[in-house]
Amino acid sequence: MSRFYKLFRKRRCSVIGMVHVDSLPGTPSYNGNTKQIISNAIKEAIIYSECNIDGVLVENMHDIPYVRPKDLTPEITTMMTRICTEIRKILPENIPCGIQILAGCNKEAIAVAKAANFQFIRAEGFVFSHIADEGFTDACAGTLLRYRKQIDADDILIFADIKKKHSSHAITSDVSLSEAVKAAKFFLADGIILTGAATGDPASVSEFTEIKQTTEMPVLIGSGITKDNIKDYLTSDAIIVGSHFKVGGTWENKVDKEKVKNFMEKLKILQNTH
């Protein structure tokens, strides 16, 4: 059985809620209060737990503008480790936790996951290079999986973005979506993530259908899911929800408990009728 289904239930669309960590030390929008950053992240994780969410994904999304791994400084990795450790302490063990460090800082994410006892990472640039708004992103599967082996972290799953959002894929325009998925499977990804063109944009339903027909890999939807369009993605293995769970539906805002609760109730109804 796929390693994915040891974390998330098979034949069910699981929900992974985003914790968008406030701007960290050294980034342009940092407010000078690390205790508040940690506290806010914990509060949002607790909301997800109380709403019976299936998983949590922690991300440094407020660290705009993002930098590539060569420019990532130690305080980001250490703060993410601290935050993730605190979140893991308060969440039940049956809620899998993941981390993404922008932009494309996948080795650092693996290291944090190892230290904080997290179960998965979201990886950018796993297969095929592309140009993102923060610069060139090179394929990293070979070096990332070797690093995972070196630090004895093989139990940490890697969910890989395919043709990811906020990026130009002109240099791989002759590589189809299905070919990218096959490459990710061949390079041992534990699941693939399909997104829209930008944060909050839904993934193409036709592309999602194409992928589901051509692979047995776990398929996650990584952007644009709402209470109104969730019916189009019920056959996905998991959905990653950020913007829709926030006040006003905007990713910069805090998690709205009522929105999470209403979404989970709507999804339960849909799953029981399909």
From TrEMBL:
Family according to the record: Belongs to the BtpA family.
SUPFAM superfamilies, sorted: Ribulose-phoshate binding barrel
Protein name: Uncharacterized protein F13E9.13, mitochondrial
Pfam families per record: BtpA
Top-level taxon: Eukaryota
InterPro entries: BtpA, RibuloseP-bd_barrel
